[in-house]
Amino acid sequence: MRIAVAGATGRMGRAVLAALRGQADACLSGALVRAGDDACGRDAAALIGGAPFGVPVSDVPEEVIAGCDVLIDFTAPEASTHYAEICARLGKGAVIGTTGLSGAASERLRALADKGRFVVAANMSVGVNLALHVLEIAARALPDADIEILEAHHRHKIDAPSGTALRLGEVAAAARGQRLADVAVYDRHHERAPRAPGSIGFATIRAGEIVGEHRVYLALPSERLEIAHIADSREVFADGAVRAARFLMGRPHGVYDMQDVLGLR
Ligand SMILES: NC(=O)C1=CN([C@@H]2O[C@H](COP(=O)(O)OP(=O)(O)OC[C@H]3O[C@@H](n4cnc5c(N)ncnc54)[C@H](OP(=O)(O)O)[C@@H]3O)[C@@H](O)[C@H]2O)C=CC1
Ligand SMILES: O=C(O)C1=N[C@H](C(=O)O)C[C@H](O)C1
Known about the structure:
By secondary structure, the protein is an alpha/beta fold. Helices cover 34% and strands 23% of the residues.
């Protein structure tokens, strides 16, 4: 399986490059960067150190994507939708981990479902995807619990709440027959009022180099269930992305998520 990495200079791009070393059935075929990046033309190993991959860094998406079976993409919404369209046109799979997609961008991806094969997931770790599964059961079993979602990430992160926090919120809301948009509370700064019954609150921390932490409270008057996940290293996301790429090989067209990849649906 030939894997190309988009956003190869980024934190996740570099984690995926590292994860591709020593894979028995997968190799790096391309490393894609933003147009004009200084790394263009150098061996991809220059981005993480160690032995050469024999793959030059490129800023030409069509060329990089044409040479792969699956593109792994942790970049930004505008880049991800652009690359996904190229993948669909060239018949290549894509694993998309980028978060902060607008409704329109998500819609653009869903519209490609009959033209290509995609795994789209805000969190590629096994642990968070199990947590989503457990949360669905818990939210249904505790309809009166107050649900609050807390997340903490590194100081560089630009979207908030995290894509994972929003997904946790969507799953909890759906388990209760609600739409997250109708019950989400992102900001309590401007209100002086008790908590609205049935609402789902979000709290965000940005500090230091925290890789990624998520905690869901399901609080009743006399007890509280907490579902928590802590990522200690970006390896968990990179390994999950490679696993998702493997899953896509030979799949019918469609948009899948990590619940499909992990067999949790
Ligand atoms: N699904 C999951 O499991 C995970 C998802 N993420 C998500 O992945 C994304 C990337 O995270 P992270 O690696 O930390 O971010 P970084 O900022 O470290 O990396 C982003 C990469 O994308 C490139 N990029 C950004 N915008 C464009 C563009 N318009 N065109 C081409 N390239 C672009 C950047 O290039 P340049 O430096 O030149 O701007 C950089 O190489 C985020 O949305 C994050 O939330 C992160 C971890 C896990
Ligand atoms: O930006 C990050 O770093 C992460 N982003 C993802 C998100 O927004 O949920 C997943 C992970 O927690 C790391």
